[in-house]
Specification:
Distance between the termini: 20 Å
Structural class: alpha+beta
Radius of gyration: 14 Å
Strand order of the largest sheet: 6-3-5-4-2-1-7
Shape: globular
Strand content: 25-35%
């Protein structure tokens, strides 16, 4: 669990921000890199509950680190709308899609209805994220996954 990205703040095209509170990396390089961005909003979590979730979420590491094709994950804390994000790198788009669909079932147990979403970006490395704000396209409801800046 390196700390190189911990504390970085990602700004998204919908003008929300999430800071990296944890990083998990497997000892492999992707042959066919793919970025996966996942979002969800936890049910009944407010105030200090967010800090408790961030600590407890470490226990979820085996859920994704054991999936074939996992390369890395940046764990982003909740944004201004209460949404958490995971910014993953996978070895290929099919593996990322399979993981996202599997994760959905688990997240449904703890997330607000309709808050779970994901976006797969085939052929991308983490270095390709964030994208230039002009290249990201228009802001709006569907822009939650498009990181446009990092500080």
């Amino acid at each position: 669990m390196p700390r190189g990205h911990t504390g970085q703040v990602f700004r998204f095209a919908d003008d929300t921000r999430g800071w990296v509170y944890r990083e998990t990396v497997a000892a492999r390089s992707p042959a066919h890199p793919c970025v996966l961005v996942v979002t969800f909003r936890l049910r009944r979590i407010q105030g200090r509950g967010h800090a408790a979730f961030r600590r407890e979420s470490l226990l979820n590491t085996p859920l994704f680190a054991g999936f074939p094709g996992f390369v890395s994950k940046l764990w982003l804390a909740h944004d201004e709308l209460g949404r958490y994000r995971g910014l993953y790198v996978w070895d290929d788009a099919a593996a990322a899609e399979h993981y996202a669909r599997s994760l959905w079932r688990v997240l449904e147990l703890v997330s607000e209805r309709g808050s779970i979403d994901y976006h797969v970006l085939p052929g991308r490395h983490r270095a390709d994220v964030p994208v230039d704000a002009a290249a990201a396209g228009p802001a709006g409801e569907g822009a939650w996954w498009r990181a446009v800046a990092v500080s």
